[in-house]
Amino acid sequence: MTTESARKKLEKLKPILNGCSIKTARMGQDMLGAIASIGKKDNYEKLSFTNFRCGVITPDMPTDEDAVLVYIHGGGYVAGGIEYAKGYASYLSEKTGIKTFFPAYRLAPENKCPDAVKDCLKTYKYLTETLAYDPKKIILIGESAGGGLIYSLCASIKKLSLPLPLGLIAISPWVDLTMSGSSYEFNDEKDPSMTLERLRFFAENYTDEPTDPIASPLFGDLSDLPPSLIISGGDEIMLSDSILLHEKLLSQSSPSRHHVEEGLWHAYPLYHLTDVDDGLIIDFIKELLCNEERPPLDEA
User: Fold this and answer.
1) Angstrom distance (rounded) from CA 174 to CA 149
2) Segment (H or E) for 92
3) How many domains does the chain have?
């Protein structure tokens, strides 16, 4: 799919989804998943926990049987699920040769903050305690709301004095549910996939306290975290979240890289654009696993 064709499809959906109901938001997320989904979906299984399910994709030819990716999907905390997440999880597993888990955490407004964080924590503890994976072989990948969840999850891991994962990859992370950054104004019209009105609707359904760090990890303790790769589009409405997150990570001694792809929109890597290099994420995963004792250098 080219950048132009993807943008046109998203622009058609934007007015339909803006200010929509929860039901429509969930249908819209499924449509976005269909647009973005590529990759094999073989070797797929579901795990059942008390309150949610978790998908698992096992690659045909594993490159590192000790490593695990955990992909946490987006959807404004109110939409998305196991079928939506399976598309990009399959792509990650296929491209890296690494087993990929993807929790279908509970959604708002039926289950408000911090239920989604609790489900992600349960998944992490299942991997490290029940399956005995080494945390230093686990990489968390989150997109949009999932990008916020990986940092809220790390805060919960730290609070319990558990070992942190090897690294974090945040794709267009939503880490400030107060939406205080300047890009919420200057990129509102540019982003074909998201609007301020829609984000306000999502935030109101997810939490009554948007300044609480468990909902908005930008306002929490981000010190001494594993290396982060943050990816955002230059036209995306939540660009400020990525910029401020990157700056705060560096200020609190947490290694971070931030890549901005000019002219592109929120969560653009999920669309596998043929005219855009999509190797950043795969290369970072390889770098982390090849340099477990020497984390990537901080980048301003």
Assistant:
1) 9
2) helix 82-96
3) 1
Whether 69 is in a domain gets the answer yes
Q: In the predicted model, what is the mean pLDDT of residues 7-26?
A: 83
For 200, 202, 240, 259, 283, the CA distances from 177, given in Å and listed in that order, are 8, 9, 12, 22, 30
In a domain, 8, yes or no: yes
The CATH number covering residue 51 comes to 3.40.50.1820
Phi, psi of 289 (to 5 degrees): -70, -25
Q: What is the DSSP letter of 163?
A: P
> Model's pTM, two decimal places?
0.94
Residue with the bigger pLDDT between 41 and 273: it is: 273
CA distances to 90, 234, 254, 284 from 259, rounded to whole Å, are: 23, 9, 16, 12
Banded pLDDT at 231 (limits 50, 70, 90): very high
Instruction: Give the 3-state DSSP-derived string for 98-132, with helices as H, strands as E and coil as C.
Output: CEEEEEECCCCCCCCCCHHHHHHHHHHHHHHHHCC
Q: What is the per-residue pLDDT across 58-67, written as a single tens digit (0 to 9) for each?
A: 998 899 999 9
